[in-house]
Amino acid sequence: MLAIYKREMHAYFTTSVGYIFIAVALALSGFCFSITTLQGLGGTPTADTSTYFLIMIFALMIMLPILTMKSFSEERKTKTEQLLLTAPVSITSMVAAKFLAAYTMFVGTVLLSSFNYVTIYLYAEKSTIYGNMDPNAAAIVGNTIAMLLVGMCFIAIGLFISSLTENQFAAVVITIAVLLGLLFIGTFNNIINVYAIRYILSWLSIYSRYSNFANGFFDFGALFYYLSITVVFLFLTIRVYEKRRWN
Questions:
Q1: Cα angle 157, 163, 168; round to 5
Q2: What is the pLDDT of residues 131-185, one digit of tens each?
Q3: Quick one: CA dihedral 149, 154, 158, 161, positive or negative?
Q4: Are 140 and 49 in contact (CB under 8 A)?
Q5: Count of C-beta atoms within a 10 Å radius of residue 242
Q6: What's the CA angle centered on 54, arms 48 and 55, to 5 degrees?
């Protein structure tokens, strides 16, 4: 497992994928943070980071599929998949290693982008213009945890879809479509009057579980949900490769 993890991490930085992901993510994060807080969408600076995190959640829907598209699709395209299937390592370890490599890239980028938050405190303390700003540390921490959990789900879903096709572009498009559906599925509650269906849609919606974290409250139910979604899609990926190994 460790060997595959190192191989995946090495691949991110020997190709342009890792550098592009980090550069785009940090540039977008910095830009969005600047216009939503330090400049303010309405022209008034604010310490409210809710809009920034909301934008970043939807940005992840585009960026993370790019990070996961090559995980399995490239293996099939370059015919190196058989080497993995015949290697003396379990399918579970192989999938876990690829997941951890992608998640390491994501978490590292999120941690780097966290330096954005320092600017709120610096301006609030040293600038009379930003003197009325009152940074909510609980909300910032909660949103960051929620973003890490949502990203974990997105990566697991992206890996599963990548395992189904050797076309990387198709993997990106299908993953984005699935993530878009899971993010917006809760909005159908406004037009559906059947309680059972509305309950199911709310349960499936990734975004509906986000609100408590965004308000600075740690939601164990949401944590269990995000972990469950991640485990389910990793399990499905394992099943795909177990079937291929025996066929």
A1: 90
A2: 455 667 778 888 889 899 999 999 999 999 988 888 888 888 999 998 888 877 7
A3: positive
A4: yes
A5: 15
A6: 105
